[in-house]
């Protein structure tokens, strides 16, 4: 079956309006804030402007105030939003909220949607996804999950430690993954729970200092200590948490790629403008062969990344898990975006290293993407295993 690369006219129009909004409204705020929104006032300011521009929450259904974009539609719009570090926050499509909205819309009960999804989609609250744990707990291997939930009268008691929980500072609720059956290392036995921020059993341990700073709400270490939640806090079915996580993780990996591709384009635009204007050795910087090679390699990386994103999104839109295509796209994009930003900084020289433009901030922000949502090494291992399994199947082994 052929992959259709032609965007729907309504999607193309929304992407165009998003691009205009980001350049005219968001980029000036980004430059003023040096790429990091450190206050609720900035978030509220940007999201109010996005609503007024008609580009807010494009991924959720019309029932919850959005445009109901499929994955291919999101690819076009999210890339334009990602042209600024603050664009995703403005459109309410930043991690982890965007992935949580996707999952809530897919598996939450109607009551849970009204209580959690509706205010989240409206930007009235934020959320976090509490799965990752300190070693030897869940990380690249979710099956290593050690946080436990035990039945108590009327609900569940959650105990465990989570770390690197993006967006947890100031979040209205967490989606916590806890083991309800089996032992660490078992492939099943996890359950997702909705935990309100005012639950006394969920405590902030510390704000983790990291290379990146633009993801709103930081990266937090959380302690679940006698955290009691009612039965209606279970998201989906008991013991099916790992299966439900796939509803979130594949699309979320792709939306990360879409957003960071926008930053790669921004870095390329900055570098090309510099190469066209800067003169040295008697000619434009852009007329030098080595600089032209870097510009060309950036274009190749951007185009290849977009193509891999489109392929994976098309497969997801057909209802498949697209596991192989998602892993390939995520691995390539994470590394390609780094290469693009790094080359752009090199082209700009001392200006790129300086704080006068945001390239050095972009470089710090994109580097962790090779670790977040599964390290490149883990994805390569998964890709190779699938290839070998297919070979063995074909060979009749």
What kind of oligomer do you see?
Answer: single chain
> How many strands?
10
SSE-based structural type: alpha+beta
The CATH class of the largest domain, by name, is Mainly Alpha
Domain Acyl-CoA dehydrogenase/oxidase N-terminal: 13-124
InterPro entries: Acyl-CoA_dehydrogenase, Acyl-CoA_DH_CS, Acyl-CoA_Oxase/DH_mid-dom, Acyl-CoA_Oxase/DH_mid-dom_sf, AcylCo_DH-like_C, AcylCo_DH/oxidase_C, AcylCoA_DH/ox_N, AcylCoA_DH/ox_N_sf
Cofactor: FAD
Domain Acyl-CoA oxidase/dehydrogenase middle: 128-209
If you had to describe this structure to a student in words, what would you say it looks like?
- Residues 239-388 form the Acyl-CoA dehydrogenase/oxidase C-terminal domain.
- It holds the Pfam family Acyl-CoA_dh_M.
- One of its GO terms (cellular component) is cytoplasm.
- One of its GO terms (biological process) is fatty acid beta-oxidation using acyl-CoA dehydrogenase.
- By secondary structure, the chain is of the alpha+beta class.
- It has 3 domains: 9-94, Butyryl-Coa Dehydrogenase, subunit A, domain 1, CATH 1.10.540.10; 127-235, Butyryl-CoA Dehydrogenase, subunit A, domain 2 (Beta Barrel), CATH 2.40.110; 248-395, Butyryl-CoA Dehydrogenase, subunit A, domain 3.
- The chain has 11 helices and 10 strands.
- The chain has helices spanning 9-33, 40-53, 71-81, 87-91, 97-107, 110-121, 241-277, 289-317, 323-353, 359-366, 376-395; strands spanning 127-130, 148-152, 155-166, 173-179, 190-196, 202-207, 219-230, 234-235, 279-280, 283-284.
- It has a 4-stranded mixed sheet, covered by helices on one side. The protein has a 4-stranded antiparallel sheet with strand order 2-3-7-6, with no helix packed on it. The protein has a two-stranded antiparallel sheet with strand order 9-10.
- The chain is globular, with a radius of gyration of 21 Å.
